Amino acid sequence: MTYAKQGLKLIDDNIRIPLGKTVKRWFKLESFLIPMPSNLQFSDIKELRILPRNRCFYLEFVYKKKIVVPEELNPKNVLGIDPGINNWLSCVSNLGTSLIIDERKVKSLNQWYNKRVSILKEGKAQGYWDEQLAQITEKRNRQMRDAVNKAAKIVINHCLKHQIGTVVFGWNQGQRQEFIN
Most buried among 23, 27, 59, 79, by the most CB within 10 A? Predict the structure, then answer.
């Protein structure tokens, strides 16, 4: 569900979300309240999205963010990023700087998840799903998102530090599915 700013109302430190005439008629419930996030101003919110995912509901606030003027970056300074099998990202620039982000933790989290899923689904029907699978899937997805965000931050900070204005990301289609000798 998506709610435009016009449909939302701030009451004390809570956002009032209307539910519509049908819900009001069926359930005698007109609206519900959610706490206003402390890191946002109500006036900045443009839209609120409620997304169902793995038996949970997530709120996404769409808001306008003030643009921070980046430091002067030189587009002739280039960072090449190669996603790999043993190292998650290997990065080399034409300035002679480099960095490697290893994959061990991410690989370990994914292996644990796959092992746990196979144990829980053992002997069950093809489309089997339950609350425990939903919980470990959601946890694994949060961990992966966090790892990707942290890796991106490391790469961006490296680019800012060395005034690298161009990033080239290598993409090897099917690399992880094939055996390399």
Answer: 79
Torsion-angle region of 157 (φ positive above 0: left; ψ -120 to 50: alpha; else: beta): alpha
List the one residue out of 94, 88, 82, 99 whose CA is nearest residue 164.
Answer: 94
Give, for 23, the enclosing helix (H) or strand (E): helix 21-27
DSSP 129: -
Six-digit token pair at 48?
Answer: 């609120």
Q: How far is CA 67 from CA 10, 47, 64, 70, 136, in A?
A: 26, 19, 9, 9, 36
* Sign of the CA dihedral running 21, 26, 30, 31: negative
Identify whether residues 109 and 56 lie together within a single domain. no
Residue 148 in domain: yes
| Predicted local confidence at residue 111, as pLDDT | 94
pTM above 0.70, yes or no: no
